[in-house]
């Protein structure tokens, strides 16, 4: 039975709400932590889909697992195995597809308003604007053939669609508890940052329950659609034979 591989690179950046959504749709998920020694899969077709999460590393860091992960994503692109990338994961997907990843003009840390393009509205539940959670310094150019789905005032390319593959330069997967843990661990980093797209430590956590609930309402539809593009194993039934 093929599962969905979730590539996690940082203890603070887990699958969160995304994993809940996939399990609710009857999918088995297999979390792989290549940055902590888990072997990188060799063949994307061993899985129904690949999810690539965030990282405190840059895609340009010369680490073996980063290079191997991009090779896996190139294999997925070649064989139409759907990929869903968040932040670092979206940068890895863009780079695997031949696009440039570079420093953004400003750090994006905290909550920000983004605009949904016509190409993204069906994917994002019809929303025209959305408040998303960010924690990134780099950004990507759009791969050839990709369509922009989200854009922001301080980062143009916040999301793209490339066939069955989705990349988001933000974190749709966060939970309230996850953001609080992230803020606590990154408090000194946030306090040292300056810029028009950087919130204070207190502002990031203000109205956090309402903010994450609103984001999850949109993310649920996005994840439903992405999972719907996967080839489901013929014997898989919702609520039967699930595990991690």
TrEMBL record:
Gene3D superfamilies: 3.40.50.880
PROSITE patterns: GATASE_TYPE_1
Protein name: Glutamine amidotransferase
Domain of life: Bacteria
Entry annotated with the keyword Secreted: no
GO CC terms of this entry: cytosol
UniProt KW keywords: Glutamine amidotransferase, Transferase
Source organism per UniProt: Roseateles puraquae
Pfam families found in the cross-reference section: GATase
Transmembrane regions: none
InterPro entries, per the entry: ChyE-like, Class_I_gatase-like, GATASE
GO molecular function annotations of the record: transferase activity
Residue ranges occupied by any Glutamine amidotransferase domain in the UniProt entry: 21-175
């Amino acid at each position: 039975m093929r599962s969905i591989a979730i590539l996690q690179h940082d203890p603070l950046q887990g699958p969160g709400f995304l994993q809940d959504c996939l399990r609710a749709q009857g999918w088995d998920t297999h979390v792989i932590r290549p940055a902590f020694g888990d072997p990188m899969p060799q063949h994307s077709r061993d899985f129904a889909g690949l999810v690539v999460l965030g990282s405190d590393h840059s895609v340009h860091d010369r680490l073996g697992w980063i290079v191997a992960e991009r090779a896996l994503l190139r294999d997925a692109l070649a064989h139409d195995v759907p990929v869903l990338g968040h932040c670092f994961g979206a940068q890895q997907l863009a780079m695997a597809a031949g696009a440039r990843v570079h420093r953004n003009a400003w750090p994006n840390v905290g909550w920000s308003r983004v605009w949904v393009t016509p190409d993204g509205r069906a994917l994002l539940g019809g929303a025209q604007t959305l408040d998303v959670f960010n924690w990134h310094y780099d950004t990507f150019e759009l791969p050839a053939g990709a369509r922009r789905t989200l854009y922001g005032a301080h980062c143009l390319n916040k999301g793209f669609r490339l066939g069955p593959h989705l990349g988001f330069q933000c974190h749709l997967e966060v939970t309230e508890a996850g953001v609080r843990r992230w803020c606590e661990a990154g408090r000194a980093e946030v306090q040292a940052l300056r810029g028009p797209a950087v919130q204070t430590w207190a502002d990031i956590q203000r109205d956090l329950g309402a903010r994450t609930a609103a984001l999850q309402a949109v993310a649920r539809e996005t994840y439903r659609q992405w999972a719907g593009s996967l080839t489901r194993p013929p014997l898989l039934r919702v609520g039967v034979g699930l595990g991690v």
